[in-house]
Amino acid sequence: MSVEKLDRRARRTRQAIQAAFVELVLEKSYESVTIQEVADKADYNRGTFYKHYVGKEELLSEIREGFLRGIRDSLLRPYKGMEQVDATKIYPSSLKLFEHIEEHKNEFKALLSVHKGISEDLYNTLRLSMREDMHMEMEPSDPPLDYELMLSYRLSATVGVIMHWAEMDFKYSANYMADQLLALVNSNIDRIVFKRKP
Prior knowledge:
It contains nine helices and no strands.
């Protein structure tokens, strides 16, 4: 059943089960968490758990899908009703992206501990959004930029910054990360200084 079609009570129950599961995964490990522990921590019985989820795999999958859906939604949210935006004014979507991750950092950490391919999932989610939801119009350049290579470069850099933030246990605020990402995207390297003689 899709999450959108659930009534308010069912959504609350699922949220409680998901929160309990994430907390237990972060305390212990995915493999050692039992359905009974999740049900107890959420203050439900096993029957209620199984009414909503077949098992841990389905629960984890729903958390992953919700997290990634939020990533995609966060990019467009600031521009509702707009047809285009100047490239220098993309700060709101960068901020919303980092705010979503910051707000759901426990889910992200749990997913990272279980699903090592989450960085690839992030990359693919961002790429899908850049292909289906928006298009970057580039200034003319010589040689002309290959759009797919440029997209791959920017998305890889964005995911790299997000993963580094997670490795630092979200040491900086979402605002700081959005500022830094935009500064990185818009920066030009002046020169390379060699620390060791080639």
